[in-house]
Design brief:
The complex is a heterodimer of chains A (914) and B (174).
Chain A lengths: L1 E5 L5 H11 L4 E5 L16 E3 L5 E2 L2 H11 L6 H26 L5 H6 L2 H11 L14 H14 L10 H11 L2 H11 L8 H6 L25 H13 L22 E6 L10 H20 L3 E8 L4 H10 L3 H18 L6 E4 L3 H16 L3 E11 L4 E2 L5 E4 L8 E2 L16 E5 L7 E10 L1 H18 L4 H12 L5 E2 L1 E2 L16 E2 L1 H4 L2 H10 L4 H4 L5 E8 L3 H15 L8 E5 L2 E3 L14 H4 L6 H10 L7 E3 L1 H30 L11 H22 L3 H22 L1 H4 L4 H25 L4 H10 L35 H11 L2 H17 L5 H35 L4 H22 L9 H4 L2
Parallel strand pairs in A: 1-2, 5-6, 5-17, 6-7, 17-18, 19-20
Antiparallel strand pairs in A: 1-3, 3-4, 8-9, 8-13, 10-11, 10-12, 13-14, 15-16
Helix pairs in contact in A: 1-2, 1-6, 1-8, 3-6, 5-7, 10-24, 12-13, 14-18, 14-20, 15-20, 16-20, 23-25, 23-27, 24-25, 24-27, 25-27, 27-28, 30-31, 31-32
Chain B lengths: L1 H12 L5 E7 L2 E7 L6 E2 L1 H11 L10 H18 L5 H14 L13 H15 L3 H6 L1 H11 L24
Antiparallel strand pairs in B: 1-2, 2-3
Helix pairs in contact in B: 1-2, 3-5, 4-7, 5-7
Classes of the chains: A alpha/beta (914), B mainly alpha (174).
Main location (chain B): cytoplasm
Pfam family, one (chain B): Arc1p_N_like
InterPro entries (chain B): AIMP3/p18_C (IPR053837), Arc1-like_N (IPR053836), EEF1E1 (IPR042450), Glutathione-S-Trfase_C-like (IPR010987), Glutathione-S-Trfase_C_sf (IPR036282)
Chain lengths: 914, 174
Amino acid sequence: MKLFVGEGNPHGVKVLAAAALWAEHVHINRLQQEEKIVPFMSQPRLPALDLENGNYLFLSNAVCRYFYLSSGHDVCNLSNQWLEWEAVELQPALSAALYAHVVQGRKKEEVIASLSASLSHLDQSLAGKPSPYLVKDALTVADIVVWGSLYPLIEDASSLPEEMKLLKHWFQTVSQLEQCQKAVSFLMKDGGSSVFKPYLQKQPVPITPSGKPTCNEHEGEDMASLSEEDIQAAANAWAKGLTGAQKPKQRLHPILPVEGEKNVLITSALPYVNNVPHLGNIIGSVLSADVFARYCRLRNWNTLYICGTDEYGTATETKAMEEGLTPQQICDKYNAVHTAIYQWFDISFDFFGRTTTQHQTTIAQDIFHRLLKRDFLLTDTVEQLRCETCQRFLADRFVEGTCPFCNYEEARGDQCDKCGKLINAVELKKPQCKVCKKSPVKKSSKHLFLDLPKLEKRLEQWLEKSFSSGDWTSNARFITRSWIRDGLKPRCITRDLKWGTPVPLDGFRDKVFYVWFDAPIGYISITANYTDQWEKWWKSTQQVQLYHFMAKDNVPFHSVIFPSCLLGAEDNYTLVNHIIATEYLNYEDGKFSKSRGVGVFGDMAKDTGIPADIWRFYLLYVRPEGQDSAFSWSDLMLKNNSELLNNLGNFVNRAGMFVQKFFNGCVPEMELLSEDKRLLAQVAAELQQYNQHLEKVRIRDALRCILNISRHGNQYIQVNEPWKCIKGNQQEQKRAGTVTGVAVNMAALLSVMLHPYMPTVSGLIQEQLLMPQESKVLTTDFCCRLQSGHQIGNVSPLFQKLENDQIESLRKRFGGGQLNGDNTEPQVKTESKAPPCQEAPLKEAPKASGPERVKELMQEVEKQGNLVRELKGKKAEKSTIDTEVQKLLALKKELALAEGKSPDPPAQKGKKKK
Amino acid sequence: MAVKELVALEKCLGLNSGKYSSRAQGAGKIPVLQTNKGPSLVGLSTIASHLVKEAKKEELLGSTAEEKAIVQQWLEYRISYIDRASSKEDIRNVLNDLNHYLKDKVFVAGNTVTLADILIYYGLHPVITGLSVQEKETYINVSRWFSHIQNYPGIRQHLPSLVFIKNRIYASNH
């Protein structure tokens, strides 16, 4: 065993003396400063004895006692009493005295005087004894413990009060013991009590024993401060039931604004067509907007939620060239991809359109004409890169070169991927045409500009109004303000491209509108494609509240440029009232990256086997509201298992089960006691919070309210134990009925509150509880919506546990790492060298089959595993089992390879193993 | 307080009630037991250890020298740390240390229940009563141990049984 003592720690004296007196085989370690030796103690505690079997002693009296016991002694009642006295009475007083003397420089006589009560207790106890020791007639652990405490301060018996002769004699006797002297010189090196100074200075100022605080008195838990009125109001609302509550409204297309009602128009940023959205894109706009749209519909507001793919622009043209398709074909292909992804995520668009439509052309050109007529457009020549080989100007992504800022060699014409700075294509060093790799020449080209400085004043006036009346997230306000503060400059609205809305003006007919001018108009044209009465939403005198949802990088286009265009058009367009912008969602510790294969993309989410509602829940739970957040696999598992399975799912399931099992599926009679009413008030408070948060589009906060309600529910059930009451007397059975009835009503309320977040789960609960249509309505109070007598259906669990292995393999699959790292290289090369038409199959192949193969192998492994278990169960011959086990091991190895390392594991092998 | 606790311990040990008084010490009170033979005994852990011996249940004090020292260490911890915890922070520290200590343990000392379990249980009872469900989940090992001890036959006595939730419902505590 090892004894650790700290340099200058006064408690070392007694343990060293006790060790010298009674211990064998103890190895003494002297530590220069306080170190953490005892693993379970948060603070370093010395002296400490490591018993080297996982046990530690960290109180010096216990160490002394152990040495004493291990030498064959017994500790009697009186010794116990001395040890307890030392710990409770003497030690606190001594610590304070030593501190006062050594650190604060008080006189020794003075501080010893403050100990007089303890010292005279000792003196008196020694009186009338034949021996000079505290207990019986021999030296015991009691003497060492008490002496060891006193020694650092007293040192010399002469410091003790003159009249305490017995005490002085005792102190001297013990001090003269050889072992005690050794201990003292080991620790104090004849340096006097000042050796304790560095140690004591680091200790908190000891509380003098007279100020000893009272124990075991704790303030009550700060339960939400519910007043009696709150509780009474909650009870009244409960009793009222659904009478007077609004009836759920049916969605009838086309949805149009209604005069005098609340009309909400919701858009989510139009996703760019040439890419598959990743989870960050999904949470940033479409999913967030979906939650809000569903909430608005629950409130019976006239709600129209539209979105669509943004299809024009250079990126589409580049992509089309890569894949050897026409831009239109690319748009069709990817529009379908997007549609499928959003369908899987259960995004409830009222209409999901696209920007390549006739309406888009008509409306964009109309706005353009109006701006032109009102003199808000300027003409200017711009230096641009032109590829003479391809006979065209190289806009944005058609040109690559070295970044003028960071010298990254593959910077694009509009932005550098490495340093993120915006680039003017002509500033690129060593520019290259992306198609033919020749260097382009600088040529000037005439372009049209939106005269933003001329519109600035109007814009500012409108912004002021919108800021004050609308719910703009703080990042949206901040970004907008900084744009205005830096002063607006004219912005080019035309581009030398073919794939876009044509510019209807002589001299510019070979050009198209730049996407940032064109794309937001998509909101209007998509609405026009939804209904020919689109002007009721976009140009109406009706009160329409317009909400734009997006990630923060999109803010300026929605808060400055688009409103400027609409203001300049002077056509009574609906302007945005609320901009809801999210921060960024990271993936594990880094960023999502399509090119490196890092992160989960929309189309892969369903291959994970995790239901869409779980994805929705987790993404909304970590929604980057206010600050960046990150997607993490292990956190996803944790949230699923704790919040969904253990908290929400467990509560809803138990509530339903009790009704089913104890009351034949019939909601029992409820007779509320005051504690039930208290619960009602708690739930009502959470519900109120939920509504307040969602009205302000604080989506993540509102989700917490839902989870809080089920937490309250779990506690309620746990405390009231209806499963026990039901077996009791009549009164207890009645109690079980009340608790069950209230709980199942909470579950019903939760199903409604959950609808915006997890529509499928919400529907499932409502189906299990056989909730009537009129009860699927969001109320402002918690009322009894399943009255006693209501028959519920079959109850089954809502969520499944996610296992560690499953999550680990998913993390590997989507982690980028070697598998994808190896793939990136050849992909980039083929992109640049091979003829474009060969691109598509090459690109698709590894991504589509990789996860499939893993899945296949996983099934194989499971099958083989079952076979082995079966054989073992049947006690089959050892050789048979062994062969099958070998097969299983081989399969597992292969699976590991497919998941993590080998870029190209042999695909056929797995199948042969059958 | 301490006297009430000792009476509960006597019942738990199957002893007849002894004669107790209290002696003021600082702002607190220290229990004193008037014994039939010999002088009176002072102090909670001294009296409790004495009662255990009286009841001939020495195993509650630990069987080896090591176990005995550990039991007494935790009795001292009880009276000088748990009972002296005055601020919320002190209480948090105590709960933190105990939670860490009990991570791989069923009982405070050794493999059976000891006096250390009983007195720490008594001492922590008012603390645990004041914890929210979330805090109970934070100090999950303390909760597990506490729930185990309060259900141990005879120990709980007059103290109300506290409720613990088996499922974790707070995500942030992992």
